[in-house]
């Protein structure tokens, strides 16, 4: 169940926190992207739409785009307008670039062709970041600094996870230069100052681009779930930067000890996981650290109906996924632990309750136990 | 300490010989359902409504919603996978996403060569996967632009279920002015329901869905006397089930039977819809007009003219009249009304002891709502505070607002209700008003605004007022019981400091925050959407 290229590009652009994303689309695409983004940050409405209507379909959407650019340039006090053009302008052949070039604007403008039918959400994200990269400027390298790449502003737990990951890296002597895409315009522009790009799951085209244009090397790592996942994440980065540090010294089992009997009872629990690049690292934690048995592991690009059938045919007792999996978990009367986009029926606003990192391992475990212990439908036939 | 359950209203001197039922027991299910709706559904619905200040959803989402109401139907999106991805979360039922939403997943190749073959294959695949009674094909912007002959494909395919299509291309959405025109139509015809014209069909998706059901699924039937269809707006709509039960009960007493609720029913039932003698329309009349053209079914529009005891009575008598039951049904309706009035009398006496101010929103139905407060509940209203700011926030034009206000003035003058009307009171004015009455009721969502700084404590009836809009007499009684209970136990709320009262809100676009980014995005949306309307 993939969101398509438009959603990926929108998510990448809206991660520049002081930018406005101008969607050149009919109303529905704009609405859908906004609804998934706004669950846990309701005043953060930084998007506008050219509102392509029948008239634009017949006569072209260039005039609507021109109007929107001029108005957005005046209305918003932001440094950047990111224009994300969707399916309709791609088919009718709007010359977006020519329109942008024809108007004098005070803001930086970056545009991208993000027609949904042209690729996956991941491809949209990659493509958008490469387009945005033209804003980056050569900078003196800051020693022991990294950019963290692969985030979206509407990822579940994104702010808490970034806070925890930053804490861990700072503790190891690593400075976080920029988090992409969850940063300010200035931070994004200054991203080439990092000594190392750390890419988690997505953003590989950007790091290739930055390596070529700015000479920033990169490292691909898994998302830091669990104690071992976090240790590996931190140690790999430190090793690459030449910092002698072993994150294992931060291991603290005290929280786990408090609930060790419950963990004993859950050892061997059959679970299934579906998700984007977060899914495999999550599976690693569930399998190798909580001792769960993984029944089904699926990616978003797999056939969703086959995934559902596989889960039905398995012994799955907890499912890890997004809000879209509520249906199958209700059908099977099992708990759902939400951890990937889109999550629209849970909020995450507290920045000290991550899923990533050492603290995240504790909070994630707590969440799993509560999902099981508070589960209302426990009847056994 | 007394609990709510222990409240003995009789001892307060409201009752006569017959003891007053404990309010929290009588109608408990109905009230609980109202609050459950508010909490479990409203948390999504109310929020998504506010996001309409920044944009509107796709026409496709309305179609998806309409199809999702039909038992045994599967909506099939003919477009790229991104459409199916986010349309699962249709704004009308965000608490219950449409999980089974297959899609033809059009890609670049299909944009060049057409997606008809993919659609044909997908219809077969959907049938084999879900075995539905109906597949509703929903074209999108992409398939619309490519020019796929959707109608041709569904005519050709041979699957053992019905297949129809609903025009759902997202670029043909409703205009910014449509709400204003709707409001104006109703405001101009507020005294006479027969004058209310049909408003613009295009754009919401639900309406297109209803049309498709009439044109492509319904079958000619022998019309059965005294059989009616009721248009629903979704099984999750506030109080849908309990209201339907009451309607069925009163209809039953009148000798009228309900054929189905449309489209909240099965595919087979929809096919038999033309057997009804009468359609009761709750939204736009155009689908009912089409049924009249195609199958000869008459219709009656149920709307705000039928609020209040007299309005509800009139509704049932109008139905009876349409069915040729004049006179025969009168006694049954009268009996229901008198029984409810008897129950209501106790609460009316209770309310009569105090003075009230009512804070309400200026809307086309406001006179009818106020009439219920004053005539049915017999609230001694000293001040009626009318807010028109929210109308501006909904892009309602000054002209339409003026018509609504004129209607209100005319109604209040004719009805001689004896209260003072205060338009758009300031916080200070509201504080003064509050000092001069025993209770301030608010049927809007604004009480938190007035509680800022430990200000005015209002009795919030914004949720329970939905009981007043039901097509039955019991809703008004249940509301009265609730209000009696709340007033009986209520304590002054002046010392509260709700967190949401600490924020700075924009007064015109409440509850949007007075934050530059929110306001800029709202204005941007309003302007761009408005420009499309001007050109039509």
Low-confidence spans of chain B:
1-26
What is the number of helices of chain B? 21
Q: How is the biggest beta sheet of chain B arranged?
A: 5 strands, parallel
Biggest β-sheet description of chain A = 4 strands, parallel
Q: What is the distance, rounded to the nearest whole angstrom, between the alpha carbons of the first and last residues of chain A?
A: 32 Å
Number of extended strands of chain B: 12
Mind telling me the CATH class of the largest domain in chain A?
Alpha Beta
Global geometry of chain A: globular
Number of strands of chain A: 12
How does the overall form of chain B come out from the CA principal axes? globular
Helix content of chain A: 40-55%
What's the oligomerization state?
A: heterodimer
Characterization of the model:
The complex is a heterodimer of chains A (381) and B (536). By secondary structure, chain A is an alpha/beta fold. Chain A folds into three domains: 4-135, Rossmann fold; 142-246, Nitrogenase molybdenum iron protein domain (Rossmann fold); 254-373, 3-Layer(aba) Sandwich (Rossmann fold). Chain A has helices at residues 4-14, 27-38, 54-59, 62-75, 87-92, 96-102, 121-132, 158-171, 185-189, 204-214, 226-241, 254-257, 260-266, 279-289, 304-312, 326-332, 357-373; strands spanning 19-24, 47-49, 80-85, 108-113, 142-149, 175-180, 194-199, 218-220, 270-275, 293-299, 318-321, 336-338. The longest helix of chain A has 17 residues, at 357-373. Chain A is globular. Chain B is an alpha/beta fold. Chain B has three domains: 4-51 and 346-502, no CATH class; 59-165, Rossmann fold, CATH 3.40.50.1980; 182-204 and 217-331, 3-Layer(aba) Sandwich (Rossmann fold). Chain B is built from 21 helices and twelve strands. In chain B, the strands form three sheets. Chain B has a five-stranded parallel sheet with strand order 10-9-8-11-12, sandwiched between helices. In chain B, strands 5-4-6-7 form a four-stranded parallel sheet, with helices on both faces. In chain B, helix 2 crosses helix 9, helix 9 (206-216) runs parallel beside helix 12 and helix 13 (308-322) runs antiparallel to helix 14 (330-351). Chain B starts with 27 loop residues before the first helix and ends with a helix. In chain B, 47% of the residues are buried. The chains are: A alpha/beta (381), B alpha/beta (536). Chains A and B meet through helix 1, helix 2, strand 2, helix 3 and helix 4 of A and helix 1, helix 2, helix 3, helix 4 and helix 6 of B.
